[in-house]
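queue> pop job 88
queue> type: inverse folding (structure -> sequence)
queue> payload:
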């Protein structure tokens, strides 16, 4: 019986394959590549349970009409990624021209605040091991410099933080947090994976993902924290916003975030192309899910957020 079912399944796939090739004039090589991509998306996309996959497949093949090489399918693959509607995933083709000089990354300056208030900017985090170590050390040193008994509160500035690696961000801001679960990834099947901070170490479930080897303790920890965001706070920047959600001593100010509060995973395809795919949704410590823009407690223009945060911390 099992052999009969396997035979019928094989025949059905062959019929569907011939149908796709005939209707859209795609080569076997192109079809194989398209099916590779669709299988990947159907298995891992954060929105996989919201998609009509038969309709999705037909639309991708329509865009791939007359594709005879793998490169011919790239516009169809790009379209397929947009049809996931997560606004975070993207396709990087193997033939992409990387010879163009990359634009320099922006540099942001710290704001000036009253002495009774601590201020720390948490910027984007991109780079290898050395860059990550420098990132953590720099933020830790700034916190240590301001670590006095007289602090009324702290400002965590996430404006312009467009993302990167969230785990160094978490251990860098760790002195402002208690140990324990700080948030979650939720997969499409509603399975949570906790973000854990514990004594200078960040874990995704049980996996150690970053460590602050120079961790410090705040002299006055039970103080108010103001979190600043704007519409360029994105991805891992949004994850840091989520980390502070649900805490009784925290209030957020500024603009709604960019709207890609989802976790991504990179997949390399058979031709060397790459898909950076949104596979999970961020949730806060209370398991409130996001996935879109995160709305601050006090909505205001980005350049007004600092002043409003200072007034709140000073009880004015």
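queue> result:
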């Amino acid at each position: 019986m099992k052999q009969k079912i396997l035979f019928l399944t094989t025949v059905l796939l062959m019929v569907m394959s011939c149908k796709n090739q005939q209707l859209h004039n795609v080569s076997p090589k192109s079809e194989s590549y398209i099916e590779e991509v669709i299988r990947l998306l159907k298995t891992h996309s954060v929105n996989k349970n919201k998609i009509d996959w038969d309709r999705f497949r037909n639309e991708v093949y329509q865009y791939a009409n007359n594709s005879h090489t793998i490169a011919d399918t790239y516009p169809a693959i790009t379209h397929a990624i947009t049809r996931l509607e997560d606004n975070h995933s993207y396709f990087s083709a193997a033939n992409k021209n990387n010879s163009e000089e990359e634009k320099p990354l922006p540099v942001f300056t710290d704001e000036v605040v009253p002495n009774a208030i601590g201020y720390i900017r948490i910027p984007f985090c991109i780079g290898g091991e050395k860059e990550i170590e420098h990132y953590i050390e720099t933020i830790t040193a700034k916190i240590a410099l301001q670590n006095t008994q007289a602090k009324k509160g702290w400002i965590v500035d996430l404006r312009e933080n467009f993302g990167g690696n969230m785990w160094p961000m978490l251990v860098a801001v760790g002195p402002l947090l208690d140990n324990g679960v700080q948030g979650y990834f939720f997969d499409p099947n509603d399975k949570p994976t906790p973000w854990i901070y514990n004594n200078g170490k960040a874990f995704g479930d049980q996996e150690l993902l970053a460590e602050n080897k120079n961790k410090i303790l705040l002299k006055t920890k039970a103080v108010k924290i103001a979190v600043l965001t704007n519409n360029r706070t994105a991805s891992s920047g949004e994850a840091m916003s989520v980390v502070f959600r649900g805490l009784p001593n925290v209030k957020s100010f500024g603009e709604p975030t960019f709207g890609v509060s989802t976790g991504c995973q990179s997949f390399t395809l058979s031709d060397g192309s790459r898909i950076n795919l949104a596979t999970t949704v961020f949730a806060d410590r209370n398991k409130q899910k996001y996935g879109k823009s995160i709305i601050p407690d006090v909505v205001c223009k980005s350049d007004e957020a600092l002043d409003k945060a200072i007034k709140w911390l000073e009880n004015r």
